[in-house]
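Reading a protein record of the kind used here takes little practice once its layout is understood. The reader may check this reading against the record printed directly beneath this paragraph.
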Amino acid sequence: MAETQWYYARNDQQYGPVSAADLKQLAEAGQLSPNDLLWREGMDAWTTAVNLRGLFAEDAATPGSRPAPNLVEAVDRLQSPADKNHLPARAGGLRRQLRIVQMFLWSLCVLAVLLGVVLFTRAFLNSDNPNDEASAAIVCSAFCLAAYVLARSGEKLSRLVLARARRRG
């Protein structure tokens, strides 16, 4: 039986094939970090190197952990759907894009609240009867509610995108 050949990705560059023993040596030499990606024939997706038990020395030092019998058996237990022929997008780029979207949504939230407060203050100061004051309060509340909905939508969108990225690899 032929030895399993591994591919690894670091800084958006793909390397390999290398043997399991070579992979272990790369990890021990510091040339393979826990955040680098690994793949071998038969896997559905790339996975981070930290998921491969027994690859890094700190795994053995963890109390209560037992070393994997070999690297191939450990990887056989990993499952995540993705296209094996494509190097997955790095999580850092995705997080940066999500931060930009979140900052934009938070800016909209702040603007909505400020606009609501300005409209409320203007209507309240110019009103002579309680009905106008009540309608001004309703307008302000509507803007605050819109800001809350924007904030929650941004949070849900971020969670959805990050969960989908994790499933893909």
